[in-house]
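batch_manifest entry 22 of 60
target: Trm112
source organism: Dacryopinax primogenitus
requested by: lab member K.T.
priority: normal
notes from requester: please return tokens only, no post-processing; we will run our own comparison against the previous entry in this batch. if the run fails, retry once and flag.
--- input ---
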Amino acid sequence: MVKLITHNLLCCHARGCNYPDNFPLTFKDVTQLEVREADYNAEFLQKMMPRLEWKALVDTAKELGDTSLPAEMPEGDAVDEEFLRRLHHVLLEVHVEEGAMYCPKCEHKYPILQGIPNMLLAEHEISR
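--- output ---
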């Protein structure tokens, strides 16, 4: 299942695509989006926060209709229970089941069927 925690790690590896121009992949043609309850773990979320590409996460969440995250990543006392619960929801409970992700540089399409993204490239598309 494509959760936003996974999406925040994905980029295009087609020939000619390099970071940061190939990140983040953009969702298009999303025809099925599901919210599934997941176990809450505040410690896990706090450890994940420094690893997140925050702007990409916020922009992607907005693209999928969720505006609950602040534009800037909170620090210190601003990382409270309410914020962590919102982050938990966006990262772990929002699932893209059907649709596609596209590279912002080369527009390569990565289809998502039954929650599984097809990240395979044809031989002529592989970076060398």
